[in-house]
């Protein structure tokens, strides 16, 4: 069987990356302009809003952000008074992060904007297409995680 040449524009991992970067850049401009947040900062706020009292390590595992990015975002949010660090009773080497009152207010203001932006991006797609796309993204994620777990990925 003949190998097909790599055509970057048709290479699905490349298309995923380009599309993800484009969507993230659009969102980043919106969050920066309206709320002074970077994408990593917003991800921390959103994850912490959903899982109050979470460690930076757990945030990194959930979001797939590296620990330096998570740490910098957490420091910036603590400095702005949006997050509080609490002692972790289960592990003295780590802290639990929680939204402060202003952090909860910020989340309450940003979340509807995030949903509205998502609606605008996907307005031209039928609900069934969006559901199928979301399901496929989850399957791709699971397949990539499985490759990573087995060591088959370089």
UniProtKB/TrEMBL annotation:
PROSITE patterns: HTH_MARR_1, HTH_MARR_2. This is MarR family winged helix-turn-helix transcriptional regulator. Residues 1-142 form the HTH marR-type domain. Keywords: DNA-binding, Transcription, Transcription regulation. It holds the Pfam family MarR_2. The keyword Cytoplasm does not apply. The keyword DNA-binding applies. It comes from Sphingomonas cynarae.
């Amino acid at each position: 069987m003949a190998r097909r040449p790599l055509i970057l524009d048709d290479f699905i991992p490349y298309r995923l990356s380009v599309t993800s970067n484009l969507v993230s850049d659009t969102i980043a401009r919106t969050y920066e302009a309206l709320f002074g947040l970077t994408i990593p900062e917003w991800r921390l706020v959103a994850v912490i809003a959903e899982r109050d009292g979470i460690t930076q390590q757990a945030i990194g595992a959930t979001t797939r952000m590296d620990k330096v990015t998570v740490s910098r975002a957490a420091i910036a949010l603590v400095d702005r008074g949006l997050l509080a660090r609490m002692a972790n009773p289960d592990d003295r080497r780590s802290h639990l992060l929680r939204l402060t009152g202003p952090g909860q207010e910020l989340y309450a203001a940003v979340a509807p904007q995030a949903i509205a932006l998502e609606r605008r991006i996907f307005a031209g797609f039928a609900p069934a297409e969006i559901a199928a796309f979301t399901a496929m993204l989850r399957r791709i994620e699971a397949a990539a995680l499985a490759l990573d777990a087995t060591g088959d990925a370089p």
